[in-house]
Amino acid sequence: MRRQTYITWRRNLGYFSLFILLVGVVYAYTRTSVLTITNYDIVGLSEEKQAEVAVALKVIDQKPFLRFIPANKLFTYRKQESRQRIVELFPETKEVLFQAVLPNTLRVTVLTHAPLFRIDETKVLSSEGVLYQNLSEELPTVLFASSTVTQKEVEGIQMSYLVIDATPVESLSYALDNLTF
User: Which residues contact 10 (CB under 8 A, 6 or more apart)?
Assistant: First the structure.
C-alpha cells in the first residue's frame, strides 16, 4: 500500500469517527434522559411560591424546543418564556437568574424589589422607583399630587417606573428613608 493511500484512509477514518461521536452526542442529548431537568432549585421565594414556580416551569418544559429537541434539557430550556411566567406569577420580581447544575437540576434565583410604600390599594412602589401590583403586604400609603409612570424593559422584564414632578423616585427614596410614619 502506498503512503498516500494510507494517509487518505487515516484521515477518512478520523472524519468518520468524529461524525459518529457527534451523532452519538446528539442522540444521547435528544433521546435519552441525560441532562434532563428533573429538579428545580428555586431560591429567593417562600415554600408556597417555590412550588407554584416549579409547576409553571414544568408546564413550559413539556413543549418541545424544536420538533426533535426537547425543552426539558439543561441547555435547551425556555429561558425567556420561563422568566416571563415568573414575572406574571409574582409582579414584585426584579430579576430572574438561571443556572444549570449538572446532572439534572436547574437553579432559578428570583430577586424581588424592596417595597417602599403603597401609592393606592393595589400598587406598591419599590426603593428603585418601580411600580408593581401587590395585594398582600401591609405598607403605608402615600398619595402624590402629580406623577407620571414611564415604561422600561430591563433584561426582558417590562417595568413601570414612577416619576414625581420630573424627579425620579431613586433620589426621593433617600429623603423618604428619613421620614417617620
Answer: none
pLDDT tens-place values along the chain, 181 residues long? 688 888 899 999 999 999 999 999 888 888 888 888 889 999 999 898 999 999 999 988 887 767 777 778 888 888 899 999 999 998 888 899 999 888 889 999 999 888 888 887 788 888 787 888 876 767 777 766 556 677 778 777 777 776 665 555 555 555 555 544 4
Amino acid sitting at position 168: P
Q: Calculate the alpha carbon distances from 55 to 15, 31, 95 in Å.
A: 44, 23, 19
Cell numbers describing residue 135: 395585594
3-class DSSP string for 64-113: CCCCCCCCCECCCCCHHHHHHHHHHHCCCEEEEEEEEECCCEEEEEEEEC
DSSP 132-160: EE-SS----B---SS-EEEEEEETTEEEE
Rounded alpha-carbon distances, angstroms, from residue 47 to 44, 59, 81, 122, 161: 10, 19, 22, 24, 29
